[in-house]
Design brief:
The structure holds 2 protein chains of 2 kinds. Chain A is mostly helical. In chain A, about 65% of the residues lie in helices and about 5% in strands. Chain A has 20 helices and 3 strands. Chain A is extended and about 110 Å long. Chain B has one domain: 3-Layer(aba) Sandwich (Rossmann fold), CATH 3.40.50. Classes of the chains: A mainly alpha, B alpha/beta.
C-alpha cells in the first residue's frame, strides 16, 4: 500500500488525534501568554507599592531621631521665685528662656552683638523653655540648683544634622547663615548637639514649630473617631444585614432598600461630611471638630460597606445548617443567633475591617466637620476638639517649612502602622472565631 | 433526564396527564389502624408548579413507611410538609389537612417550633452543627428546656448517642467537633440529635444516599431498632433499602401518590402499571 493511500485511509480516531496535536501548540501558547499577562499585572502592582513605600520610608524614617542640644541650665531663685513663697503660679510665670540664653552665652562667650546673639538663641527650639518649665514645676526642689538637660534644637539645625540642608548652597537658600553653621559645627565637636530618639513626635500634639509638632494628638483623635465608628457601625450594620437577610419579607420594599444601600456605598465621602455638618452639628448642636461627630459621620459612610459584606457572609452560610436548626425546632431567632451568625462572623469581620480601614484613611468628610483645625492639645474625650491622622498628613503637607516634609512622611508611616495593627487585630479575631468551629 | 421522558410517554397511555382532574384515586389502603399523622388532600404549589396533587396518607405508630418514586415526584416535598419545613420556602403553598394526633398542624393555633420538636427530621446530607459532638446532641434539649441540670443533659446526650449506636465510637471524644466524624457517624449523630428531643415522628430524607454500603447498613439497622418507639417516614431512592427497612411503601409519581400498600405487596405484586414499571427498573 502506498503512503498516500495510507494517509487517506486514516481512521476517524487518528484524524482527531492529528487535529488535537495541531492545535496543542496554539493552546499552550495562549496559556503561557495569559500567565505572562497575569504576572505582569501583579509585578506592576507590586512595583507601585514598593515605590510608594520606598519614597515614604526614605523621607520619613529620619523622624525617629531629632536634634537635641545639651545645655547646662540653672534655675535661678531670683528669677523664678522672687518672694520665696514657692508658689507654683509664680514659678510657672517666670522667664524660662533666660537660663537657656545664659547657657548659650556661656558656650559662645565671644558672640556679643545683639543680632548675633538672637541668631545664637535661635538654634534652640522655642519649645525648650516649656520643657524647662515642666521640669521645674514637677520638681520644685531643683530651684536654685542647675542641671544638664537635652533640649530640643531648632528644626533647621535638625534638618542640617540630617543632611537635608546642603552647606554648599547659598545662605538664603539653606535658611542657615554661615555663623549658625559654624556654631552648629562647634556644638557637635563639643558633643553637645546630637540626634536622639524623637520622643516628642510620639507624645505631643501639633505645633507651628516643626521640631515640636507631634503625631500623638492626631493618633488619639483617629483612635477615638474609629472607636465611635466601630462601636456604632458594626452592631448597626450587622443588625441591619441580619434583618434584611433573615427576617424581612422579600418584596419591593426590601428590594428598594437593597438598591439604596448599594447606592449609599458609592456616595462620595465628602457628601457624608456635609450631611454630618448639617445634621450633627447644626441640628443636634454637637461640638465642632470632635471625634464624636467624626465617628458619627464615618459610621454613616461605613455602614453600607458593612451591611453589604455582612449580607454576603450570611448568604454564604450553607442552607443545610439552617434546615438542621429549624428541623430541631429552633425558632428563627435561635437559628440565626446560634448557627448562622457565628458562621457568618468571620465574613462580617472582614467587611467591618475593610470599612474601618477606609474610614481611617478618610479625610474629606472630617474636613467638613472641622477636624481640620489646628489643635495643639491631645484630645482626652470624645467631645474634645481633635484632628485625625490623614487630616494631619494633609495639614503638614501644606506647611511651608522644610522640616514638615519629613513629618508628613512620618505621619504617613504612623498611619500605615495604625492600619497594620488594626488589620492584624482583625485577622487574629477572625481566626479565633474560625477555630471555634 | 431520559428516564423522565420515557415514563412520560409510557405514562400517557396508562394514565392521561389530566388524571388528577378526572378524580384519580390512590390505589391501596391509605389508612391504618393507629395513625399518628393523618394527611388528607394535601396539595403543594411552588409558585405555578403543582408539586403534590391531592395526596392522602396515614402514618402509623411503630412502623416505617418508605416513600419511593423517580426524582422530582414530590416525595421529599410531601415529607417536608409534615414538619412544615416548606414554610421556609417563600413560594411554597400548602393546602389540605395534615393532622398530628388529631390536630391540624397547619392550624393557626399550632406552634411550628413545638411541631418540629414532635416531628424530627434527618436530612439527605449529614449536617451536624459545626459544634462539638456533645453540643450537637444537647442542642435540641437545650433550646426546648428539656433538661433541668447538667447531669440530666449528660444523661439525655448519652442515651441518645447510645440509641443511635454511636456512643461507643464517640464517648471519648464528645468535645471534638461533630464535623470531624466520618460521613456515617455524622449521619448517626444527626439521628441522635433528632431523637434527643424524643419526637413522635422521625422524617428521613434519603438518609443514606451520601453514605457507603457499610454505613448504610448500620443506619438501616438503626432504623429498624428505632421503629419500636417512633413512627418513621423515610424517603429513599434505593428500592432494596425500602424493601429492607419498611413495613409499608408509598409510590409517588409526578406529584401523585399512585399506590400504597404493605412493602411485601408493593414489591411482589404491584397493582398499578407505573408502580410495576418503577420497581422492575424500567425507569427511575
Amino acid at each position: 500500500m502506498s503512503e498516500a493511500a495510507a494517509a487517506g485511509a486514516l481512521t476517524p480516531g487518528q484524524k482527531n488525534r492529528q487535529r488535537v496535536e495541531a492545535g496543542l501548540r496554539r493552546r499552550y501558547r495562549a496559556e503561557a501568554r495569559f500567565r505572562a499577562y497575569g504576572i505582569a499585572a501583579v509585578a506592576l502592582g507590586l512595583s507601585f507599592v514598593a515605590l510608594l513605600f520606598v519614597s515614604i520610608v526614605s523621607t520619613g524614617w529620619t523622624i525617629f531621631r531629632q536634634a537635641y542640644v545639651l545645655l547646662e541650665v540653672s534655675y535661678d531663685a531670683e528669677t523664678f521665685d522672687p518672694d520665696g513663697s514657692g508658689d507654683p503660679e509664680v514659678m510657672g510665670g517666670g522667664d524660662f528662656s533666660a537660663p537657656i540664653k545664659a547657657s548659650m552665652r556661656e558656650l559662645f562667650p565671644d558672640v556679643e552683638a545683639r543680632s548675633e546673639r538672637r541668631m545664637l538663641y535661635g538654634l534652640v527650639s522655642d519649645g525648650a523653655q516649656f520643657e524647662l518649665r515642666t521640669r521645674l514645676l514637677a520638681k520644685p526642689a531643683a530651684l536654685g540648683s542647675s542641671e544638664t538637660v537635652w533640649l530640643l534644637a531648632d528644626d533647621r539645625v535638625d534638618q542640617f544634622l540630617k543632611g537635608k540642608i546642603d552647606r554648599n548652597q547659598p545662605a538664603d537658600v539653606r535658611g542657615l547663615s554661615d555663623e549658625e553653621i559654624a556654631w552648629i559645627d562647634q556644638l557637635e565637636r563639643l558633643g553637645r548637639l546630637e540626634l536622639r530618639f524623637n520622643r516628642s513626635f510620639f507624645t505631643q500634639g501639633d505645633s507651628r514649630e516643626p521640631e515640636q509638632a507631634g503625631i500623638w494628638g492626631a493618633l488619639v483623635g483617629s483612635a477615638l473617631t474609629l472607636l465611635v465608628t466601630l462601636v456604632l457601625s458594626f452592631p448597626i450594620g450587622v443588625a441591619a444585614a441580619v434583618y434584611l437577610e433573615e427576617f424581612a419579607a422579600k418584596n419591593r420594599l426590601t428590594d428598594f432598600i437593597e438598591v439604596n444601600i448599594n447606592n449609599l456605598a458609592a456616595v462620595p465621602s465628602i457628601v457624608f461630611g456635609l450631611l454630618g455638618l448639617a445634621v450633627f452639628i447644626q441640628l443636634f448642636g454637637l461640638p465642632r471638630s470632635a471625634p464624636l461627630v467624626g465617628g458619627l459621620v464615618l459610621t454613616l459612610m461605613t455602614l453600607p460597606t458593612i451591611i453589604i459584606a455582612s449580607r454576603a457572609a450570611l448568604k454564604g452560610v450553607p442552607p443545610s445548617i439552617r434546615e438542621a436548626a429549624l428541623g430541631m425546632g429552633a425558632s428563627q431567632v435561635q437559628m440565626v443567633m446560634h448557627h448562622v451568625l457565628p458562621l457568618a462572623m468571620p465574613g462580617m469581620l472582614t467587611g467591618a475591617i475593610i470599612g474601618m480601614a477606609r474610614a481611617l484613611g478618610e479625610s474629606a468628610p472630617l474636613l467638613m466637620i472641622g477636624m481640620v483645625a489646628f489643635i495643639v492639645d491631645v484630645p482626652g474625650a470624645l467631645t474634645d476638639p481633635s484632628t485625625a491622622l490623614p487630616v494631619q498628613v494633609y495639614l503638614w503637607a501644606d506647611s511651608p517649612e522644610r522640616a514638615f516634609l519629613e513629618r508628613t512622611s512620618g505621619a504617613i508611616l504612623v498611619l500605615l502602622a495604625f492600619l497594620l495593627v488594626m488589620n492584624l487585630a482583625a485577622v487574629i479575631l477572625r481566626q479565633k472565631f474560625e477555630r471555634r468551629w | 433526564m431520559s428516564g423522565e421522558t420515557t415514563h412520560a410517554t409510557r405514562g400517557n397511555h396508562v394514565m392521561p396527564p389530566e388524571r388528577a382532574e378526572q378524580g384519580f384515586r390512590t390505589i391501596g389502603e391509605i389508612t391504618t389502624d393507629n395513625p399518628v399523622v393523618v394527611c388528607r388532600g394535601v396539595n403543594v404549589h411552588y409558585g405555578d408548579k403543582h408539586a403534590i396533587r391531592d395526596v392522602s396518607l396515614d402514618i402509623a405508630h411503630d412502623e416505617v413507611i418508605a416513600m419511593i418514586g423517580p426524582s422530582g415526584c414530590g416525595k421529599s416535598t410531601f415529607l417536608r410538609c409534615i414538619n412544615r419545613l416548606n414554610d421556609t420556602i417563600p413560594t411554597a403553598r400548602v393546602s389540605g389537612s395534615i393532622a398530628l394526633d388529631g390536630r391540624d398542624i397547619y392550624d393557626k393555633q399550632q406552634d411550628v417550633v413545638q411541631l418540629r420538636a414532635r416531628v424530627g427530621m434527618v436530612f439527605q446530607k449529614p449536617n451536624p452543627f459545626p459544634k462539638t459532638v456533645y453540643e450537637n446532641v444537647a442542642y435540641g434539649p437545650r433550646i426546648h428546656g428539656l433538661a433541668a441540670d447538667r447531669t440530666e443533659l449528660d444523661e439525655i446526650v448519652q442515651t441518645s448517642l447510645m440509641r443511635a449506636g454511636l456512643w461507643e465510637e464517640v464517648k471519648d471524644r464528645l468535645e471534638s467537633p461533630g464535623t470531624a466524624l466520618s460521613g456515617g457517624q455524622q449521619q448517626r449523630l444527626c439521628i441522635a440529635r433528632t431523637i434527643a428531643v424524643s419526637p413522635e415522628v422521625i422524617l428521613m430524607d434519603e438518609p443514606c444516599s451520601a453514605l457507603d454500603p457499610i454505613a448504610t447498613a448500620r443506619i438501616e439497622d438503626l432504623i429498624d431498632e428505632l421503629r419500636q418507639n417512633y413512627a418513621i417516614c423515610i424517603v429513599t431512592h434505593s428500592m432494596q433499602q425500602a424493601a429492607r427497612v419498611s413495613q409499608r411503601t408509598a409510590y409517588f409519581h409526578l406529584g401523585d401518590l399512585i399506590e400504597v400498600g404493605s412493602t411485601d405487596q408493593i414489591f411482589t405484586n404491584p397493582r398499578h402499571k407505573l408502580t410495576e414499571d418503577y420497581i422492575t427498573g424500567r425507569f427511575g
